[in-house]
Structure formats: C-alpha cells, structure tokens
Fold each of these.
Amino acid sequence: MASVEGVTVPELPQTDPGAEAAPTGPEAVLDIRGLTKRFGETVAVDAIDLAVAAGSFYGIVGPNGAGKTTTLSMVTGLLRPDGGRVLVHGIDVWAEPDRAKRAIGVLPDALRLFDRLSGAQLLHYSGVLRGLDAATVRQRTADLVAAFGLEDATGRLVADYSAGMTKKIALAAAMIHSPRLLVLDEPFESVDPVSAANIVDILQRYVAAGGTVVLSSHGMDLIQRVCDHVAVIVGGRVLAAGTTDEVRGGGTLEERFVALAGGRRAAAGMEWLHSFTE
Amino acid sequence: MTGLLVRLKLRLLLNQFRRSPWQVVGLVLALLYGAGITVMLVATLVALRYAPLQLATAVTVGAGSLAVLAFLVVPVFVGVDDTLDPRRFALFGVERTRLAVGLAVAGVVGVPGAALLLVALATVATWSRNPASALVALVCVPLVVLTCVLLSRIGAAAAGLLLSTRRSREAVAAVLVIAVSLLAPLVVLATNLDLGRRALAGIGRIVAVLGWTPLGAAWAAPASIAAGRASGLAQLLVAVLTVVVLGLVWRALVGTALVSTGRQAKPQTVAGIGWFARLPATPRGAIAARATTYWARDVRYRVSAISIPVTPIVLVLVLGLAGVPGSLLALLPVPVIALFLGWATHNDLAYDHTAVWLHVAAGVRGVDDRLGRLAPVLAVGLPLLAGGSVVSAVLAGRPLLAAPLIGASWCLLLAGAGLGGVSSALMPYPVPRPGSSPFQHPNSAGGLAAVVQSVLFLLQLLAAAPAIVLGVLAYSGGGSGTAWAALAVGLVVGVLVLWWGTVLGGRVFERRGPELLAAALRA
C-alpha cells in the first residue's frame, strides 16, 4: 500500500499517479518528508520524500554516490539532516530519537564494528544495549547464530572474520531486538549466494509477520525478485518509486534503472582496448 | 619509472597540505621541528671543523652510526611510510630491478631523506681540513644517504613480510614500549656514571671499531683521511660494498614481496562471553564489560596500561640518580600513576573509531556510556592507588602520610575521569585506528590533540591542587589534622568533579552523537 510521491523531474513519467500526498497514519512505518543533506557546496540528498508502509520489503537502488547511504544514515539517526523530517512509526527520529531508535534495526555500510569482541560477545552487546535482558539475549543469540550459519565462528574475534561473515554477524546484531523496521545498507555485499538466499528467507519471514525492511543494493535481479516496492534515487532525488512492477514497467528493473540513471555510455573511442599490449 | 615514483612521492607529500586546517597546523609544526633539528645538526657539524680531530671523529662516527641504525630499526617497529611498500606495485608487472631502484630513490624524497642529505653534506664542511679529506667526504655523502634509505626500505619491507599478522605486530609493539621505557633510565645511568676519561677512551675504542662496520664506514672514511691515515680508503671500500650488498638485498626483497602475500594468523577463540557474563546485563554493565575486554585485548589500550605504571618507575629512577632523598621518592609514584590513569580516559571515545555508531543507533544514555567506559579504570585504579599509598607511606617511614596520598591520588584519578567524560564527548581527536600499530598516529591528530591533552592535564592538576597542597603541608611537618583534611578534600573534590563530568559529558554525548560519528569518519 505504500504510495510515494517522488520529487520527480517533470519530463519523467510519474510512476505512481494515484498518490498525491504521502500517506500518514499508522500504516506508514517510515515516512520521509523533504529530507535534505548538504556537504559544503554539494547537495547529497535533495528534499527526498518517501513513504514505506508497514509490512513491505522496500528496495532502494541508485548509482554510486546517489545519496542512498546518506539517506539511510539520516533515517536511522546516525547523520543529522539539514532539513526535512523522518517519522518512524509516527515518531520523529530527530525530535524524539530515543523512542524512535527503539523501533529501528540498523545495518550501516562501511562503519566498523566493535571487532575485538567475539561474535557471541558482539551479539550480546548489541542486545543488551537495546535493553534486552540476559536470558532473552542468550536465547536469541542461539537462534540467530543458527539461522545465519555462524555456529563455528561465535568464539572467534570479529576482526578475524571474512567480509561476508562480518556482514552476517552485523545483520544478526541489527535484528536481535526485534525492531519494527530494519534499515539495511548493502546487506548482500560480499555475501555468498547460499548465505544471501538464506538471509532473504529470514527477511521474507520477518516481513510476512508484519515487519518492514528497507534495504539498498546494487543487485537488480535480487531486488526485482525479493522487493515488493522500489525507489530509484539518482543525484539525491527520487526519480521513481512505487511497487516493483510499476517501477520496472514492462521491462526488467535493470533496464529501467539504467535508463533512469542516465543510460549506458556508448563504448565509443575505446578501440585501443581491442588491440592488446604484449 | 624512477621519475614517475619520485613524482608520486612528491604528490603524496604535497597532498598532505590539502587537508583540514588542524591537520596542516600539525604538519607545519612537525616540519618546523624537523627543520630545527636539521639546522642544529648542520651547525654542529660545521663547528666541528674547528674542533680537535679526535672529538670530531668521535661525534660524527658515533652519532652517524646511531643514525644509520635508527634508519633500520624505526621502520621495523613504527612501519613508517608504507606508501612505497613494494607489494602495492605487485599488480603493475614492473621489472623488479627497475622497481627496486625507483622505490629506493623515491625513498629519499621526504622530510627524513631531505634532512639526512643536508646533514651528510655538512660533513664535507667538517672535513674541509685538507682537500683530500673534503673530497672523500663528498664521495661519502651519496653513500651515507643510500645506505640509510636502503636500510629503512629493507626494514619496512622485512617488517611488512614478517610482521604482517595482527598479533605479531601487537607483540612487537608491546615489547617496544617496555624496551623504550627501560632505555631511558639506562641512558641516565650511563651518563651519570662519573667515569671521566675512561669513558672517553671507551668511546674512542668503540668508534674505531664502528668505523670498520657498515654502520660507520661512510662516516669514518673522511675522518681517517683527515688524520693522514691511508686506511680511510679501505673504509671507503667498506662503505661502497655496504651499499652494493644492501642494494642486492633490497632487490631480492622487492622480488619476494611482489610474489608473496601476508602471513595468516591463527585465529584467537574466546569461550563464552567473558566479562559480559560477569557484569550486569544492562547497557551500563555491558559497556563496562566491553571496555574491560578492550583494555585487556586491544593493543592500543594495552600500551597505555603498560606505560602508566612504567612512567613513574622511570621518573623515580631518574630522580633517584639525581640525588632526591628516598623518603620523598617513595611518595611520588602513586600520585603520578593516578595523574596518568585519570588522564588516559580523556579521549576514550575516539578509540572506538566508527564503531561508536552502535551506541548512537541504540540511543544509549550518555550517563551509561560515560560510567561504563570508566568502570575498568576506576575498579582497578581506586584499590590499586589506595594500596599503593599505604605501601608508599610505610616505605617512607611515615604511615600517616597514607591519608593525604590516598586523598591526592583518588582526587587526581576521579577528577581526570570526570574531565575526560566531558572532553571525550566534546572534542575527540584522532588516535591510531583499531588494528593498526599503536604508534601509527594519524597525521590528522596534529594541533587539536596537543591542545586538548595539555589543557586537560592542567585542569586535572588544578582540580587536585587543594588536596596536593594539603598533602605537601602534611609532609613538611603539618599535624595529623592536615593529613586527614587532605584525604577529605581530595575525596569531596574528586567525587564532585566526577559527578559533574559524568552528567555534563553524558548530556553532551547524547546531543552530539551524530557529530561524534562524523568526527570518527573523518579521522
């Protein structure tokens, strides 16, 4: 039911014409209004509007440097916006951060973990910081470790994990307090296909139970297959948003994305690449 | 290839100035410091032109050999300048001899290389006593520079190959801290021993031997010629051979580095959840458990943990050699430990680096964060200082002084912790990153770090001043009333500053969470 009013460039087709205003009320678990972030002269996020209904599996796609991570950081309370509002379950993240943050589980991209802790210690730490008691943390840790296939790694320091394992333990830590909304920045990066399928399975069951997932990814096939809603962010603006079928129109999500992101550069003038250096 | 690498190095150096103002300030300070030392050395060497021959020889060969040794040893431990690590060029398919030559020449470019070149040129002035020695000195300039640069490249590359695992680096770092701490009193011992002429004769013999080793040959050759000894030519030959051998070793190392990966460490395993199981499962307890685990496991904390008790030992040794009476000496270590222990908390948050996002995203209460981080320091520090105070007072022969000692040292620790609670949330400055060498300070730390460090030091001393003054009065003949007053005042002031710092620092932490994360991202 998430309908979205993207701040669209006029000549682009409105993908969700039914939505004049973003829906308010309890069904929008995440409601972003006019969110803006500038770094010096550059406008990284340019007055983005986005609404995510409860129970949706929402994908955010965009080229490198489009402002995805910046947006998600502002949603989760990690980066102070220059303008606009973020409501999570009706609570303003930047006015009442303590209440809002309880409802959010976060997997940031390119931030460190407390990696001198073992996997089990990191999960415990994340759970207790979120206010869980010891017994609950113990039981959920066991479940998460089994679900993510980390049984052999709980005693090892996270610093010694591979990139994919680090991603998995961070993802497990993000959901240990059973948040209403999971905000995942690049959850599948450097994760092997079997583990990725496993993670998708966990997330789909979470969504089926009423949870909401917002994730960013460069894997178009995966987003098209898994997400029921998609937003395309280019240059700090939402160029298209809506259900996955609406956004991709007749073609694949990848085709639509490449068209929106400025099209493929014709590989002219690269003939030297076809005569090889000895 | 060589020209390209030199230009790369120059570009990297120049780009250091295109950073934030604080970083440039730090860099300029470092440059001025280096320039000052270089000017001093050059002036000394020129002045030695008019000194007795024996003295000039002893200074140039002795100090020169030490400098050459430093060029080998420092990169092994500190891992300086890995911008020119040969492994970074492994994928370009450059022929190894050309790469080895290029990297060695590019290694001269930089502050240490430039300083070395100027200092080596100054020896030409030292040995301008006759044309022959001046000529040999001039020939030796490139030999000295090449020897030093090759040694530093070999040291860095060998360390990169052998010490590439996290644990071996940490072990070496810990050993180095202890070695350096113990070296200081040894130097004092050596200089204080009144051996007079015997020492000078000993140095003369050492220098004579050094002149024939790779470390000193290039420095000794012009000295021998100036003394009219033809053996200088043989020393010149040793210097040339040194450069040739080092060149071959360097070429071989480049070849090895190009085709090898780092060693793999055997991963460490932890049974259960350690401290987390022993401390309460609340945010405050969990943060305390995490801080305790890091003090025990993270080499950057371990360096502080080792050097805090070592510093006063060094201090006592130095003062003892300088003739300070034992009864006063016994009273000094405990307050000094308290001072450094309290001060060590002032930048605690920066050690998290960007991992602090977890505290921000979880909306951790500021007070929980502040007190949790302090828990291991206070839990270990307070009883240790109390016990140490009693032992010190008994050793000094005046048990009553335990009271002012506890008062002053607890006040120093508590006030340092309270002040640190505010400053770590208000002005964190960059520290070595998790997993990197504890000596590899980011050059971005620069000016801000120095300002924060010295201001906090002064404030901490200021807060403890009433207790310290009363303690000094008690030492110099005040009655038992003064002694107990020092204890009371110290406790009250310490607790008040800690309470104030925790509340205010907690509020700052909650308000500035995203900014703290942004600062960590820039670091």
Amino acid sequence: MIIHPDLAALRNDDAPQRQAQAELGAALAAWRDQAAGAELGEEMRRFAEGSPLPDLPRLSALFDPESGKGQQLARSLLATLTRSFAAAPLGQVPLRHFCDDTIAMLMLARCGGASLALQTIDGVGVARRPAPQSASFSPGETWELVLSGEAEARLVTLCQPSPDGGRIQTQPCTLREGDLSVRNGSREALQFCKVEGSLVTLKLQRRDTSGAPSREYRLSDGELLHQAASTSRDSRMELAANLLGRMGRTDAAPLLAAMAEEQGSVSLRWQALRECLGLDTAQGFQTLCAIARNSGDPLAAPAGALRAQLLEQHPRLIALDMGETQCPA
Amino acid sequence: MNLPKIDLSALPDLDTLTGVFGSLVHPAQALEFDDSVVVVMVFIYDMIYP
C-alpha cells in the first residue's frame, strides 16, 4: 500500500488535521451567519412544516432568477471553501455531500423532510450512462434553479396512475442558466439527456409526509416496475419491527400495534401488524379487527381478508373479534 | 387465556410489495437526481476500530 507522506505524518500526529478541520468548520459557520443567516434557517424550518415557498422571502429569493441571490449564495460558499482548501488541502467539508462519476452534491441546509443543496452534473458522466428505461416518481416537491451551464433533458409526466401502471408522457426541454424547474415529484421527473460541460443547480426539495411510496415505471409502456419506501425512516422502522419479531420481544407487541394503527406508509403498518400477530395473538388480532372495521383505512380490505382467513383457521379467535379478552373455550 | 400461536409465515404480504428506501429496478440508468439516492459507504480500518 502506498501512503502519501503527508497522510503518513498524520498517523503519528493528527493535531494539524484537527486544527485544519476546526478552521474549516469556523469558516463555514461564518459563511452561514453572513450569507445564509439565521432567518434562512428559520424559513427552512417553516418550509419543512409546509409553508408555501412564496411566504418565505429569504428562501424564495434564492429561487427568483431575477434576484441573483442563488448565484450569490453559491459563489460565497465556494469562495469560502476554496480559501480554506488552499490553507488545508486535506480538510473535509463539514456538510453532507455525495459524489460519483456524474453528480457532486453539497447539502447546504436540511430540516425535517426539506433540504437545500448545491449540485453539479457532469456531462461526460451523463453521456456514459445508458438511455433510461424507467422513470422514478417520489412524492414531494422540487424547485431547481440552473446557476450555470446548459443541458438537454426531458420532463417525464405520469398520467392516470393505477395500481399496475400509468400513462407516461415525455417532453424534451432545454435548461439554461437562470431557468427554474418546479416539479411535483409524485407525477413529474426530470431526466438529463445531454449536458455541455457541467450543469450547476441549486435545488430545494420537500418530501411528502403522507407515507406514499416512490414508484418506478417503465418508460415504454408505463408498467409499474417497483415501489419503495419514500423515506429512510419508514425502512428503518420496518427493519426494527422485523427485528423485534425475530427476537421474540412480546413486550413490544403494544408498540407494534400502535405502529399498525398510525397514519402513514401502508407497507410499514402491515409489517408491524404481521409481527404483532406473531408475537401476541390477542393484541395482534384485536388490532387487525379494528383496522378491518375502519372502512376509510387503505388497509381495511387486506385486513378484512386476513381476519376471515385467521377465523377460519382458528375459530376460537371469534371471541376477540367480539371485543372479549377471554376465550370462551 | 388459551389462544393459538399464529405462524408468521402463514400471514400474507400486501399485493404490491414495497422495497427499502432508495431501491430501484434500473438504478444505473436513473438520471433523475434527488435526495432518495442511497449510498452505502464501506470503511476499512487497518489498525483498530477508533
């Protein structure tokens, strides 16, 4: 293994790196105070809670192409970071970031399900990728302002979605500096076809809190190919419910029953219900019956079918369905 | 109380399964970039866990 002498030196004494990291953090904090300011943080919080963007003057100004505020924010951040890197090239930007052969992204602010990010898309990376066969639609809203560069893209729109698919419409478009793209993620997706050099955008996103999944459709015929949890929280909770079940944690049955009756992702609720039934028959079955009785619940039909199946297999459960806790047998 | 133990494997899934956050059938071709991208990062420590 070849280790650069600068890195090898840090193995013996990491104080210079810690110092550089502290200075980078301080520089970024100063930028945040000056360029972004506490008001922007407060507006991100209100945006995450559902306030309309036009009601938030600092945040909406960033996405007003006439104001130039978005460009100013990006330029001041890059000036701050490049100054810091000149002094400490091994410093790590203390912002969430992502990078692959096509995209580089810095998350400037994040609050609840809302995020503000600076993003670069590399034209060479885009050209290397095969033509997309599918489009993915994630529930949420996106505002994307082109800060520099030009791209050919296509707006994919999902029309008349049904359980098995939907009608897909595609419309070519060109994105240039100053263009603003506003999208409803549950039915609109933007796919980049060609980028000259690189495209830099400022992107504001807000996730939907309904628990609806993200869905991937085939472009050629609109068939639903896949659906996935729309938030990492839903997947994390589902894994936790499965783990509690495998551990035989009967004490977690009331928690799983409460999860099953919450609003939100039907997949998460169904898995919590299954695990609850496996851990505690009485609690699980009573929860199942309550869900089946609630005709407004999207899980009412599958819960009703499962209740009928279990009653046929275990007739003694009828006592629980009648609201009793003791089995008459 | 004398209730039957319910076998988890006998309980059906919903008609349409839901994958984990960030999963896609055609991930390599997805040229839509949003915050649902999931990256698994591998850390290798050559000494001891810090």
